[in-house]
Design goal:
With 455 residues, this protein is α+β, with helices and mostly antiparallel strands. It contains twelve helices and 20 strands. Helices cover 24% and strands 27% of the residues. The model has no long low-confidence stretch (mean pLDDT 89).
């Protein structure tokens, strides 16, 4: 589970330091506050109490999306290095001096019952790693696993974590080698070597947490894991779609011929990409999925190449016809794309969805969150969303500490804060007060006459 994320000097998140010139980052956290509501949604990790859900509200251009983008950027820098120029101008550009300042990413998260803090600083404009650290949080104490300052080639690691002296020497070599490489992190360098010794296991698990557990869903992301659910018999699929009032009451994977499959492509060569040739050396069947604007296909490959093509068809009540994926409404397609969030069977997945309410009816957004919370009972699964949907902002549905705000300051930087700080009563109409501007993080419009120059 994600417990805290800290960010500095990235997009609308500014660069601040204290009197000792230490970075003072903006923080978003999922530690439970003082609310007594919905205690079943609080997961305990020793002394730490962590929430399963969080929502972020704010006006357009307030920084909600930038928060999720920052979480994703730190993940991608770890997984793919900084060899490209993707983040070259992603520093906080409200001040030109920020180009030379470090950008900081730090994550506090859990693996099993263990709690870790992993972070690093980089210079985005020159694509260089500056520092990196990993701590294990034990009670109120932090145990340093390693720290390094790349430019100065300084480092420290706890030698006691290695009982094998050869592993200790090997890690010492890895960290020295990482300090010589400007654009990749130590965890990446360890992971790419595919080490199998158990003493390196925790480093591999942390890397894999970012790769497989921390799932970022942008507005145009299509979650393939949602579509693969239709490749197997699962009564929950139709039940959920019916429950969410999509009109869908059933589905089938209907087999089609190659010539029909080709008709879904404007160019012959586009279809050929998926019609693979026979492979006698591959005796195993492979099931793949292809999603287009019109259809979802299941493609089964074997020795003979493409053995079977099926397309997803939906049943609507007693209708005598079946309907293709592309014939469904934008809201229904959006729900189908997000099914893996609700029907996830992984205990430790963290889903971050930017603009959950895109294409969804207000009541649908609320029902989606409620359904996730019901299906994730007794699981350490998290859902973090950005949204404009004020009908979800109801203290009968959410806890005070599950509601966050992003607000744009006068210098165009973002500040984050939770509803918890306002200490409001449980019977208060939060959505009404929010839209009235009591908590900030809402648009402030000028008088219409201003547009025409009549002030």
């Amino acid at each position: 589970m994600l417990m805290r994320f800290s960010i500095s000097n990235f997009m609308s998140f500014g660069y601040k330091t204290d009197e000792q010139q230490n970075i003072v980052p903006d923080e978003f956290y999922l530690y439970a506050g003082t609310s007594e509501q919905h205690k079943e949604r609080v997961i305990h990790f020793a002394e730490r109490k962590v929430l399963k859900f969080s929502s972020v509200y704010g006006a357009n251009a307030s920084g909600k999306t930038n928060l999720i983008s920052a979480i994703d950027a730190g993940k991608q820098i770890l997984l793919r290095t900084m060899s490209g120029k993707e983040y070259e101008e992603k520093y906080c550009r409200s001040r030109k001096s920020n180009q030379d300042m470090p950008t900081m990413f730090e994550y506090e998260f859990t693996i099993g019952q263990r709690c870790f803090a992993y972070g690093f600083t980089v210079n985005l404009s020159s694509s260089r790693i500056l520092t990196e650290w990993l701590y294990e949080m034990e009670g109120k104490k932090e145990h340093t696993i390693y720290e390094r300052i790349a430019e100065n080639k300084e480092y420290y690691f706890d030698e006691a974590i290695f009982q094998n002296s050869e592993n200790r020497q090997q890690f010492d070599y890895f960290i020295k080698d990482a300090n010589r490489i400007q654009n990749s992190l130590l965890l990446y360098e360890i992971r790419r070597r595919n080490l199998e010794d158990k003493e390196f296991e925790i480093f591999l698990k942390i890397y894999d947490w970012f790769k497989h557990k921390l799932m970022i869903v942008h507005p145009n992301t299509k979650m393939m894991t949602s579509f693969t659910l239709f490749g197997r018999d699962d009564d929950r699929l139709a039940q959920i779609l019916d429950y969410l009032d999509t009109g869908i009451t059933g589905y089938e994977m209907r087999e089609i011929k190659e010539d029909i499959f080709r008709q879904y492509f404007s160019a012959e060569s586009d279809a050929d990409k998926f019609l693979k040739k026979p492979d006698p050396d591959n005796p195993h069947k492979i099931l793949g999925f292809l999603i287009t604007d019109k259809m979802l296909f299941a493609l089964e490959y074997g020795r003979n190449g493409l053995d079977k093509i099926s397309k997803l068809m939906f049943q609507h009540g007693q209708d005598e016809s079946r309907y293709e994926f592309g014939e469904e409404s934008d809201g229904t397609k959006r729900l189908i794309e997000l099914l893996a969030v609700i029907l996830n069977d992984d205990e430790e997945k963290v889903f971050l969805i930017d603009e959950l309410d895109r294409s969804l009816h207000p009541q649908m957004t609320v029902k989606f969150v409620e359904t996730f919370l019901r299906f994730s009972e007794n699981k350490s699964t998290q859902l973090i969303i950005s949204t404009h949907e004020s009908s979800l902002m109801d203290l009968k549905i959410l806890r005070r500490d599950e509601i966050w705000f992003a607000e744009r300051e006068h210098d165009n930087t973002t500040v984050l804060y939770a509803l918890e700080k306002f200490k409001i009563r449980y019977d208060k109409s939060v959505s009404k007060d929010y839209l009235a501007g009591r908590y900030g993080a809402v648009p402030v419009f000028k008088d219409f006459e201003y547009v025409w120059g009549r002030q």
